[in-house]
Amino acid sequence: MSATTWQPAEQIAALIAQLTPPPGTQLVLAYSGGVDSEVLAHGLAQFAKRHPEYRYLLVHVHHGLSGNAGRWATHCQRRALVYGLPIKVKQVAVNTGPRVSLEAAARDARYHALAQELTAGDLLLTAHHQDDQLETLLLALKRGLGPKGLAAMGAIQAFHQDKWLLRPLLDISRQQVEQFAVTHTIEHIEDESNLDNRFDRNFLRLEVIPALRARWPAIAVTSARSAQLCAEQQALIDDEVASRLPAMLQETANASSPVLDLRLLAQQSAPWRAQLLRGFIDSLGFAMPSAAQLKQVLVQLIDAKEDAKVEIRLNAMVLRRFRHQLYIDRYQPHAKLAPINIRLSDALSQHWPITDTASLQAKRCCHGDRLRLPMADERVSVRFGAPGSLRCHPHFRDKGRELKKLWQELAVPPWMRDQVPLIYFDDHLVAAVGYWVEKRFIALADDVGLVFELQA
């Protein structure tokens, strides 16, 4: 495709045709003001004239990392008037602390700002082109990534689960983009940081890729073909994981999300163990650990002894093993919940906050296994955590048992036990919310009693 035969509006139209979004869908362009995004904005303006059924927005993210950032924002606002497209300038704070990749931090801040402008079904357009694809592939090789990483960028990809990310220029070279800008006299800015080869992408763009092109002129095209093949192989792997994984997942009353049966996982070959664990982590929405981390996690999970306590924290998630099952939750610093005294009224339903996100509800009723009403002189309190040696007699057992044994009988994982609200009358444990009522404190016959529930 020569510089004179392609049109950015047609590139956009070709991808839109594959998705057929309904009227009213918003197309949001990540608009930096650089030559790539200016050419794509030019094309989006032409596309918008032909398709008034959609909504359009240019979003310029003001990182504040350059003394020229304000001037660039002004440029983008002026150009938006030329294109006849609405624009929003969003200023973000970029984490520039020690041991932080400025490139990665700026990218994360940018995409977070862009995501805020999208609702379900909306489309985000970025101006990545063929040379960007080559850079991405080389960075993936440097990091030692597998097929998923080497698949680099797709022309159409899911974004934040219910939105889409489109890259209309992905099969267009940087030279073609720049030539289009010259031919159509498209103004653009020059970011001076693009000449700083301390950044990995700039190093590749300025020093490595020119040498590769000098030796192999078609390197961007052939590498894109390799990325596509990797994407196809990854799609096959994803399909197989989607087929195998559901049979290994179980729902449990003690977890808000499915748990993974480690005995079934152990029956798989080593490569499939890794793929299935990746699939499980991805299904819960967590960032993927490195290959080395994943390998170590599998060793600890599968080779652990029956009664071993396995708890592994990886960034925002924590992985725990309990009874051959893998629980994955978002990491939260463990805080001991404080006991609270509650005063019961004659209302049919009452609530008391337990944490910032949960409350305890008491309902009065005349049926089921319910707690009797407290006596006038009995003090009611909610506590968290009790000695494992405490003897309890749940309503569903003929005999009493130690609390530690009851938690095991009910398959309540150890890390959850101190989070269960325990109801006390004076110093007597009378109910474990969600699990049992003490037998001698059950309301009799048709007497009004109490049912406690934890509300998230």
Number of domains: 3
CATH topology of the largest domain: Rossmann fold
Please tell me what the overall shape is.
elongated
Strand content: 15-25%
Number of helices: 14
Structural class: alpha+beta
CATH architecture of the largest domain: 3-Layer(aba) Sandwich
Helix content: 25-40%
* CATH secondary-structure class of the largest domain: Alpha Beta
Mean pLDDT: 91
- Poorly predicted regions: none
Give keywords.
456 residues; alpha+beta; Rossmann fold; 3 domains; 6-stranded mixed β-sheet; 21% strand; elongated; tRNA(Ile)-lysidine synthase; tRNA processing; ligase; ATP-binding
Describe the secondary structure blueprint for this structure.
Layout: H1 8-19, E1 26-30, H2 35-50, E2 55-62, H3 69-83, E3 87-91, H4 102-115, E4 123-125, H5 130-143, H6 147-150, E5 156-159, E6 163-166, H7 174-183, H8 200-215, H9 219-244, E7 249-250, E8 259-261, H10 262-266, H11 270-283, H12 291-302, E9 310-314, E10 317-322, E11 325-330, E12 340-342, E13 349-353, E14 359-365, E15 371-372, E16 380-384, E17 391-392, E18 401-402, H13 403-409, H14 414-417, E19 421-425, E20 428-432, E21 436-437, E22 449-455
Parallel strand pairs: 1-2, 1-4, 2-3, 4-6
Antiparallel strand pairs: 5-6, 7-8, 8-11, 9-10, 10-11, 12-16, 13-14, 14-22, 15-22, 16-19, 17-18, 19-20, 20-21
Helix pairs in contact: 1-2, 2-7, 5-8, 5-9, 9-11
